[in-house]
Structure formats: C-alpha cells, structure tokens
Amino acid sequence: MCPRFVFLSRINPRCFGVRVGPVSPVSIALFDWPHRMFGVTLGAVVKRIFSVPRLVRMSDLQRILSNNKAAEQLLESLKQELKEIKNEQVQRKIAVLQAENETLRRQVDSCLKKLISLEVAHGKVQIPVPTPDEVRAGCGATTVKMESAQPPVKKETPPEATPSVKQQQNENKPPKEKKPKKEKPAGEAKAAGGAPAAEEPPIDVGRLDMRVGRIVEVSRHPDADSLYVEKIDCGEPTGPRTVISGLVKYVPIEEMQNRMVVALCNLKPAKMRGILSEAMVMCASTPERVEILAPPEGAVPGDLVHVEGYPRVPDAVMNPKKKIFETVAPDLKTNGELVACYKDGTFVVPGKGAVKAQTLKNVQVK
Questions:
Q1: Third-level CATH fold of 205-365
Q2: How many other CB atoms are there within 10 angstroms of residue 28's CB atom?
Q3: 3-class SS at 107?
Q4: Is 247 helix (H, G, I), strand (E, B) or coil?
Q5: Which residue ranges have biased composition labelled Low complexity (predicted)?
Q6: What's the average pLDDT block by block, 10 residues per block, for the chain (366 residues)?
Q7: What is the DSSP-derived secondary structure letter of residue 304?
C-alpha cells in the first residue's frame, strides 16, 4: 500500500485542526516519521498522552467510592452490634427484676398466710377476697380455707346457792349506814330539771356582726409587703381594733387614712405574721381589683349594719368549727346598682342609707 494511504488510515488529521486536502510528500514525511522510527503512529502517541491523566482521575474516584462504601458497611455493622448489646442488657435486667418480684411475692404470700392464721386463731372472721388474677379473669371470690378456731373455753360457774344459804349470808353481813343526801342549790336544781335550751338561730347573714368603722391609723406590716396594719374605731369603749388587711396592691396608703369602712367584728381573732387581727374590712373583690365598701353618708363609727329580711342576731365570736362565715360568704355580692347584698337583702345602716361599692357591680363581697 502507498505510504500516503497508510498514514491516512492510521490517523485523522482533522483531530489536530488540519484541513485535509491534497497530501504532499512533505506532509506524509511530517506525520509518518514516528511509525518509521518506532513502529508507532503519531495518533497512538497523542491518544496515550491525553488518556493517562483521565485514567489517574478515574482510579482515585473509584478508590474514594470504595472506601466510602467500606466505611458505611462498618458503621452499619457497629450499629447492629450496639443494638444487640442493648437488647442483651435489657433482657438481663428484665430477668433480674422478674426474679426479685417472684421472691417478694413469695415473701408476701408467706406473711399473708401467717397473718390469716393468727387472725383465725383469735376468732377474726375471714372474708374471701379475689386475687388480682381472678379479678382480671372475671371470676368471683374464692373461699379461704383455714382451720377453724377452737371455741373459747367456758369458765365453770358454781351452782347457785340455795335460798337458805343466801339468807344466812345476808344475816351475817353488818347493816349498811345510810348517808344523808346533800341538797342542791335552787339554781342547779332548775338546770338539772332540763329547762329547754335556747334554739340556735339559722346560719345566715344575721349571725355576722358588721359595724361602721373609721381607720384612724394605718401603716405597712413590718414582715409582709402586701399587708396593712390598721387601727379601726368601731365606737367601742375598749378603743380601736387592730386589723390586718391585704390591700397594699389595690388601695394606696393615702386613701386608707381616715376612711370609713364596714368591719366584720365577730370573727375569731387570729395572728397574721405575728400581729393579732381582730376584725375584717369588707370589700367588693375581683381577681384584678378590690374596692372597700363605703357606708352611707352620715354614718358614724359604731353604727350597726343590717341586712334587709334577716334579723340581726350576731354571735359574740363565731365558732370556726361551725363555719358560719364560710357558709354565708358565697351569697355576699354587689348588685347592678353597686349595693352590697346577701341573696336578695341589701346592706343598710337604718335611717342613713345603703352600703355600696364604688364601681364594681355583680362581684363577690369578701
């Protein structure tokens, strides 16, 4: 074959940007010298030169992928082993707890049998009780089979003495001296005679001793930031009462001084943070606001507060055990006209007017 056609069959000059045209002997010599010297065509040499970096890059990528796959397989095997170890530990713990529970159950059963035997020995009647398994299964109670206790031994009593022996014993006894009876005083005799006791009035607002008072002195409690210590003049000869009120958050101290109030005066005195409180200031109250009830104009300290429809029969001091105030309190409210009420009866000072709140309607009075 002609060298010209041999070269053209081995390499495509267009790969190198060479425009193919009539081939001259010079161009044939230019492209065919590697084949003549080394037996390799120029195209093969160029192809090998450009393919080596690509082979290098492909081998690195394959190695990275294989390493990644091996790492994933290792992680998966480690996770599986860790899961198996956890399951094994859980099973061991369950087995230990089941053994402990079984031991405790046997001890409880033993103690229960001893207790039942002791109760039966002392004559205690045993009531059959279903076991938890029977309850879950829906079965009834099973009878408890225990040895019946021996009947108590009756003491032998001597036969009754004959009438002649009894008469002889009575004759031998010395006669008893009669003691003179003590005469009871006339008052005690009437009390013992069972005079009917006065009936206790019904538990309603009439049992509360509410009076008009004036705050003559007020200060902050030394041991509580939310409490006032007040001196309230209720028109009593013993002087002002000490009252503790939790009004710091709702009423400024300037508005407390010389204020007219309604005081509940027959609560049992109680200490609040070390200071004895002898009454309670009545207020209209919500969770957000508190207003002190205001007596009518013209009221003076000592005026009694009545509730229409309920006669005023207050206890001297209400017994906390009878819970009188706790029973009455749910029905103490203000109506739509700001007047304090118990059910349908309004708080009034006779001849002077009604007791009112400033702005709170239809709220609880405490």
A1: OB fold (Dihydrolipoamide Acetyltransferase, E2P) (2.40.50)
A2: 17
A3: helix
A4: coil
A5: 188-200
A6: 44 50 53 54 59 60 89 93 93 93 92 87 76 62 46 50 51 56 48 57 93 95 93 93 94 93 94 92 94 94 94 92 92 94 94 94 93
A7: B
**pLDDT digit string, tens, across residues 30-78:** 555 555 555 555 566 556 655 555 555 667 888 888 899 999 999 999 9
Running DSSP on this structure, what letter comes out for residue 360?
A: -
What token pair was written down for 143?
A: 């009878």
Beta bridge partners of 345: 342
Distances (CA, A) of 142 to 116, 137, 240, 275: 15, 13, 72, 63
Residue 194 in 3-state DSSP? coil
Distance (Å, whole) CA 33 – CA 42: 8
C-alpha to C-alpha distance for 56 and 222, rounded to whole angstroms: 89
End-to-end CA distance of the chain: 127
- The amino acid at residue 68 is N
Whole-number Å distance between alpha carbons of 23 and 6: 12
- Quick one: 4 exposed, middle or buried, by C-beta within 10 A (0-12, 13-18, 19+)? middle
Contacts of 358 (CB under 8 A, 6+ apart): 291, 294, 338
